[in-house]
Design brief:
5 helices; binds 4-nitrophenyl phosphate; 4-stranded parallel beta sheet
Length: about 170
Amino acid sequence: MEPTADRYRIIVACLGNICRSPIAEAVLADRLARAGLSDRVTVESAGTSGWHVGSNADPRAQATMTNAGYTHHHSARQFDPDWLTSGDLVLGMDQDNVEDLRALSPDGDAEGVVRIFRSFDPQLMHLPEDDPALAVPDPYYGDAEGFTEVLEMIEQAADGIVDHVRLELG
Ligand code: 4NP
């Protein structure tokens, strides 16, 4: 769904926007729909790099989403620094993503809007955001199993993100 000013805007970002963040976008869209929040919240994804702009998700990511029953269609985009202002919640999949996203803020004030995705996992939310256990690891150079693990990590955090958004919406 296209973002509009009156909707809460979530943007999930990884490095290439072909593996982790497209999966996170599909899972969050599903959870928000189940929570009845689709008309108030938009979710999109992007890459901190522009390496794969215009590409569909990696075939392994597509297979992982399809096998798990998620609807998906994708064209990779590079994160636009303006989205640090227009976005309400920008979620990096690992600490490098978070650092790269915050560095796009000219006055370094993106601390609050940029968060690491797994910090919303109820079992991990006690960890400091720089704890390596909070990373959704890059599966690109690995095997199909890595994509299944990525999906599981994303699913475990997704409901926590929905709860957070619900509180923010009031
Ligand atoms: P993603 O994975 O950041 O989860 O989309 C990657 C995709 C491509 C590359 C690295 C990570 N790459 O080096 O091209």
